[in-house]
Automatic annotation (TrEMBL):
Quaternary structure and partners: Monomer.
Primary location recorded for the protein, binned into one broad class: cytoplasm
NCBIfam families in the record: tRNA epoxyqueuosine(34) reductase QueG
Residues annotated to bind cob(II)alamin: 60, 131, 155, 166, 213, 238-239
InterPro entries to which the protein is assigned, alphabetical: 4Fe4S_Fe-S-bd, 4Fe4S_Fe_S_CS, QueG, QueG_DUF1730
Residues that bind [4Fe-4S] cluster 1: 185, 188, 191, 245
Protein name: Epoxyqueuosine reductase
Cofactor, free-text remark: Binds 2 [4Fe-4S] clusters per monomer.
Function noted in UniProt: Catalyzes the conversion of epoxyqueuosine (oQ) to queuosine (Q), which is a hypermodified base found in the wobble positions of tRNA(Asp), tRNA(Asn), tRNA(His) and tRNA(Tyr).
Keywords assigned: 4Fe-4S, Cobalamin, Cobalt, Cytoplasm, Iron, Iron-sulfur, Metal-binding, Oxidoreductase, Queuosine biosynthesis, tRNA processing
Species the sequence originates in: Croceitalea vernalis
Gene name of the encoded protein: queG
List of residues binding [4Fe-4S] cluster 2: 195, 211, 238, 241
Active site: 131 (proton donor)
Length: 307
């Protein structure tokens, strides 16, 4: 067994021990196929008011510009599919935001993995990324053989669908690289047909500026009236394209206690949400990603849905 194979196995075993669904490796290099796609998407203003998407274009496509001397991208998946969901006929929150903010949960796991690599292999320089830097995480996960990018632009696997977070370690260590898997969307158009705002403008292309997640989380101004009645009761994020995907029949509940929701969240009715106070908001979402939209943002979303 070569050192590359030995190191690769060590890292994958430790990732599994830490609770990650899967772990894959790809060579840190310029993403040639993604470059024209990203440029076209930005030129068509599909990022809406997410101006940060236009920053660091070169770094977004080339990890060696993010981490000097980097040789490998380690991609990891962490399941967040919940055991229990909100009651029927209420305003909905995307399942990824039920529990503690995933940024913090995953960052601490990545820190342990980084320390493990240094202890077992020697001095390895690198950086951890959890959806907070210019990294095309889905592209890297697909290159690393962890799944394929579906028509809804989310990463998909045959075994567990798409309800998981993606994270990376970009390191200056040579590893045994994995190979991409084949696309298994076939002729299915379930996600395209079900999108309430027709945000999936063509297979594999999502207009971010029409996505319910964009309106309820990213947009700071008022939600355009033309989308009134089209939000399918989503007040933070949206899971429609994932919920209808046949591959998500294979989703299994996560085993991460920190992703378990506040008990009150699951039982709240529309009336509860319409009358929510800032104190209740802080209590329920104390460590949640929902804090990103702030109390005023959630109130705006609920008002838009109830008017």
């Amino acid at each position: 067994m070569s050192s590359k194979e030995t190191y690769s196995k060590l890292i994958k075993d430790e990732a599994k021990r830490l609770g990650f669904l899967s772990c894959g490796f790809s060579k840190a290099e310029f993403l040639e196929e993604e470059a024209p796609r990203l440029e076209s998407w930005l030129n068509q203003n599909m990022h809406g008011e997410m101006s940060y998407m236009t920053n660091h274009f070169d770094k977004r496509l080339d990890p060696t510009k993010l981490v000097e001397g980097s040789k490998s991208v380690i991609s990891l998946l962490l399941n967040y599919y919940p055991q229990d969901e909100q009651i029927e006929d209420t305003y909905k929150i995307s399942k990824y935001a039920y529990g503690h903010d995933y940024h913090h949960v995953i960052k601490s796991k990545l820190k342990i993995l980084q320390e493990f690599i240094s202890e077992e292999i020697g001095e390895v320089n690198g950086r951890a990324f959890v959806d907070s830097a210019p990294v095309l995480d889905k592209a890297w996960a697909a290159k690393s053989g962890l799944g394929w990018i579906g028509k809804h632009s989310n990463l998909l696997t045959q075994q567990v669908g798409s309800f998981y977070f993606i994270a990376e370690l970009i390191v200056d260590l040579d590893l045994e690289y994995d190979t991409p898997v084949t696309d298994h969307c076939g002729t299915c158009t379930a996600c395209i047909d079900a999108c309430p705002t027709q945000a999936i403008v063509e297979p594999y292309k999502v207009d971010g500026s029409k996505c319910i997640s964009y309106f309820t989380i990213e947009l700071k101004n008022e939600i355009p009236n033309e989308f009134q009645g089209k939000f399918d009761e989503w007040m933070f994020g949206c899971d429609v394209c994932q919920d209808v995907c046949p591959w998500n029949k294979f989703s299994k509940p996560h085993r991460e206690p920190l992703f378990n929701p506040n008990a009150d969240l699951l039982s709240m009715t529309k009336k509860d949400w319409e009358e929510i106070t800032e104190d209740v908001f802080k209590k329920i979402f104390q460590k949640s990603a929902v804090k990103r939209t702030k109390f005023s943002g959630l109130q705006r979303n609920v008002k838009f849905l109830s008017s």
